[in-house]
Write a structure and sequence with these properties.
With 385 residues, this protein is α/β, with parallel strands linked by helices. It is built from 14 helices and 13 strands. It is 37% helix and 16% strand.
């Protein structure tokens, strides 16, 4: 390795916690490791209070293909005294870089306090997944500003995130990077075998909605679009509900499409993820708002074509229509038109070819290298020694 090895204190969510951010952190941790940098990972003793996590569990299961990153479980987001003691613990390791992640403002006070208590020569960087949340709560902007203003540089994972960071007017240098493609879900499996194991019709056209079900993700509009789609188009809904599924179920029944909608409304472990993506003809993201999406990174890994609404960072992730379809609006009518267009024009093969080229470009190692280069530039520009 040409550059000097760094000592990195990586503070975020890691194993045994589950979810997209934990998977992101594990992949990036391994990329830094591959480049020869020394890391000490710190994660939560308590991540969320129950009121902020309506899912079934915050922890991985035996069926998850989770990377057991050796993170020390020390941070309690609900205890300010703990934040100070954790900061002291991290400071004693004398890190060259403190790396954090922002995905919801609730984490802001804890991470902001830790960052503020690092030594002056420690460069503090934050990977920002969401600068302004999809579902706003009082205090969001203040918490986010408190956290990010304590850092020396910010890494934006989409153009939408970068635009939100500019709105906050923090005066911090920003590195714009794209979400790399996940590789830990294993190899693709045969489509017909996947459909058989999920009890899906062999010859239907299968659409997939995957991931946590939240209002901003627009599932209701996707369900409504199904009433005007041909009978051979089926929808698989796979993911854990945040709240109640009753309203979605009522819409499915009122439109008389229950025979074409296949429900797996539960947490989907890593071991089952290939079944859903490999059985589908397309993964649909009918989001009303978005910054970026890890679901696209999973779909790209399995080379499952994506159909998405034109919000946030989704168009750029799909190369503005070259590596996936961008429909013309977020309402049910536009989603339905896009789906019909996708099948009638046989666009899948062109999208898959574009994704195959992208997979070579969007690697975790390249992201790690660029973060290290960003660190070096900030260190030079600030004169920190």
């Amino acid at each position: 390795m040409s550059e000097q090895s760094l000592d990195i204190a990586y503070v975020s969510v890691f194993y045994p916690y589950r979810g997209g951010i934990a998977q992101f952190n594990a992949a990036l941790y391994r990329a830094f490791e591959e480049l020869g940098h020394h890391q000490k990972a710190f994660t939560f003793s308590r991540q969320y209070p129950d009121m902020l996590f309506p899912g079934s569990s915050q922890f991985v299961t035996e069926e998850d293909n989770a990377d057991p990153i050796p993170a020390e479980r020390v941070l309690d987001t609900m205890n300010p005294f703990n934040w100070i003691s954790v900061a002291s613990k991290i400071r004693k390791t004398s890190p060259d870089m403190l790396l954090t992640q922002l995905w919801m403002p609730f984490m802001g006070p804890a991470f902001g306090t830790i960052a503020r208590r690092m030594e002056k020569d420690c460069i503090k960087l934050c990977v920002v997944h969401n600068a302004l949340p999809h579902e706003a709560r009082p205090g969001d902007r203040a918490f986010t500003t408190y956290m990010l203003s304590a850092h020396d540089g910010l890494i934006a994972i989409s153009d939408a995130v970068e635009e939100d960071l500019q709105k906050l007017q923090l005066g911090k240098p920003i590195l714009r990077k794209e979400h790399p493609i996940y590789t830990h879900f294993g190899m693709p499996i045969d489509k017909q075998e996947a459909r058989k194991r999920l009890n899906l019709p062999e010859n239907a056209k299968i659409l997939l909605f995957f991931g946590f079900i939240r209002e901003y993700k627009g599932l209701m509009n996707l369900i409504e679009s199904m009433k005007n789609l041909p009978e051979d188009i089926h929808l698989v809904i796979a993911g854990e509900i945040y709240g109640s599924f009753e309203e979605y179920e009522a819409k499915i029944q009122s439109q008389k499409i229950a025979h074409r909608v296949h429900l797996h409304v539960r947490y989907i472990p890593d071991s089952e993820t290939p079944l859903f993506f490999c059985s589908a003809d397309a993964c649909v993201l009918p989001y009303k708002t978005a910054t970026q999406s890890g679901i696209i990174a999973i779909a790209h890994h399995f080379e499952t074509p994506v159909i998405a609404t034109p919000v946030g960072g989704l168009p750029e992730a799909l190369r503005n229509g070259r590596a996936g379809m961008i429909v013309h609006g977020t309402d049910a009518g536009e989603i339905g038109k896009g789906i019909n267009d996708f099948f009638s024009r046989n666009l899948a093969s062109a999208y898959i070819e574009a994704v195959q080229a992208l997979k070579k470009e969007l690697s975790w190692t390249e992201l790690a290298r660029d973060i290290i280069a960003f660190y070096q530039k900030i260190k030079h520009d600030t004169g920190k020694q």
